[in-house]
């Protein structure tokens, strides 16, 4: 057998041997092993390099789940380096306050009036250009940096919203990681107080993963938040494992129907049926329903017919930088005064 083949066989043997249950008196204990493999000459000729590459493979194996092994491949270096670099830059960007918030309007289905703006993070990176939150939020969550960054988002969004006309709300996304820290409720209170924003104008968007992990503690936090007078929305509804059952667990104020359902409205019969069911459910339970990712007039008309209360999407507006947002608000106010 080649070096690689025997390394694989050995790795599996080690995992199997260490994984055997151990009897300690009346108890049975199991431990596990995870293995990273690099072989010479394919993966390097120097001990240091081989070691580093095996370590990278180990890191990947751990991410894939315990009791497994992975063989080094060339892309692993680059992916990890890229990730570490982003992490480093993110710390710097936070310190230098380089993150920005864009705001996307959420409008009433019946009258087309702006009900709220959702705050969405933007990162204008000095060399990479605009980095998408879909790329950097997972790293911020992994490293815990989402806690200070998330606090910044809350403060910034509340401060901005306090300058808007009285009825318009602001929606802020919360990561499940922010629930793991003790100070979430005081942070929210402090953001509201500092901005002098009425709690009724703040909406916090969570995904069902908040209720999945440590649900009892998180549920208690959600209740404390809601007792402040703010609203809690369930984001990306329908994409998780048991969205429906969570509606029973917590009195959500709002359901955001995920854009994947909206996108296929005209094409997929099931999506239309699901949207209809959710809109009906919302109406019966007194929960506001919002359709996300509305891009065409056909989608809008369909959603209106099904009884969705609000919509959000490129059809009405993309997320806007603060200058454009303020302009939109000024125009809306002028139009209201003229009417
Ligand atoms: P999300 O909360 O589901 O936000 C909606 C996403 O859909 C946004 O992507 C928005 O720009 C995009 N979108 C809105 N209308 C349309 C449309 O008509 N068509 C299409 N194709 N897309 C539309 P974005 O801004 O890239 O944000 C991605 C995700 O990153 C968000 O998904 C949210 O989960 C996360 N995120 C953004 N800002 C924050 C934040 O401040 N904190 C946390 N924890 N997460 C954030
Ligand atoms: Ca959201
Ligand atoms: Ca969403």
Q: What would you say this structure looks like, in words?
A:
There is one protein chain. The protein has 339 residues and is α/β, with parallel strands linked by helices. It has helices spanning 3-18, 47-64, 75-95, 133-143, 146-161, 176-180, 184-195, 209-212, 215-227, 243-249, 259-263, 269-285, 297-306, 322-338, and strands at residues 22-24, 27-29, 35-37, 69-71, 100-108, 114-125, 129-131, 169-173, 202-206, 231-237, 254-257, 288-291, 310-311. Strand 6 (114-125) and strand 7 (129-131) form a beta hairpin. The longest helix is centred in the first third of the chain and has 21 residues, at 75-95. The mean pLDDT is 93. One calcium ion is lined by residues 118, 173, 205, 235.
Global Rg = 25 Å
Secondary-structure-based class equals alpha/beta
How many angstroms does the end-to-end distance come to?
84 Å
Tally of helical runs: 14
Describe the global form: elongated
Average pLDDT over all residues? 93
- Which kinds of small molecule does this entry bind, naming each only once? ligand C2E, calcium ion
Strand content: 15-25%
Instruction: Please give the number of β-strands.
Output: 13
Q: Sheet with the most strands?
A: 8 strands, mixed, barrel
**What string gives the helices and strands in order?**
HEEEHEHEEEHHEHHEHHEHEHHEHEH
């Amino acid at each position: 057998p080649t070096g690689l083949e025997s390394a694989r066989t050995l790795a599996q043997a080690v995992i199997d041997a260490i994984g055997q249950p151990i009897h300690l008196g009346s108890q049975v204990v199991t431990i596990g092993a995870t293995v990273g493999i690099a072989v010479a000459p394919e993966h390097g000729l120097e001990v240091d390099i081989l070691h580093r590459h095996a370590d990278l493979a180990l890191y990947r194996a751990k991410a894939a789940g315990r009791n497994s092994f992975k063989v080094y491949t060339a892309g692993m270096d680059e992916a990890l380096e890229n990730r570490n670099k982003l992490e480093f830059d993110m710390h710097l960007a936070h310190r230098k306050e380089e993150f920005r918030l864009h705001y996307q309007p959420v409008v009433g289905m019946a009258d087309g009036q702006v009900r709220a703006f959702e705050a969405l993070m933007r990162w204008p990176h000095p060399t990479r250009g605009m980095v998408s939150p879909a790329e950097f939020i997972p790293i911020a969550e992994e490293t815990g940096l989402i806690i200070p960054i998330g606090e910044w988002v809350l403060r910034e969004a509340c401060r901005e919203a306090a300058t808007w006309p009285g009825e318009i709300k602001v929606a802020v996304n919360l990561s499940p990681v922010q629930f793991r820290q003790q100070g979430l409720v005081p942070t929210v209170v402090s953001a509201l107080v500092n901005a002098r924003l009425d709690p009724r104008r703040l909406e916090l968007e969570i995904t069902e993963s908040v209720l999945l992990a440590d649900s009892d503690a998180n549920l208690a936090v959600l209740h404390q938040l809601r007792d402040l007078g703010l609203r809690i929305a369930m984001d990306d509804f329908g994409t998780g494992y048991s969205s429906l059952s969570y509606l029973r667990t917590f009195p959500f104020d709002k359901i955001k129907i995920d854009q994947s359902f909206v996108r296929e409205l005209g094409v997929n019969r099931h999506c239309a049926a699901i949207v209809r069911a959710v809109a009906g459910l919302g109406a019966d339970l007194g929960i506001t329903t919002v359709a996300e990712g509305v891009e065409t007039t056909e989608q809008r008309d369909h959603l209106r017919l099904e009884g969705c209360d609000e919509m959000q999407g490129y059809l009405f507006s993309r997320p806007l930088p603060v200058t454009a947002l303020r302009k939109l608000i000024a125009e809306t106010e002028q139009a209201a005064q003229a009417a």
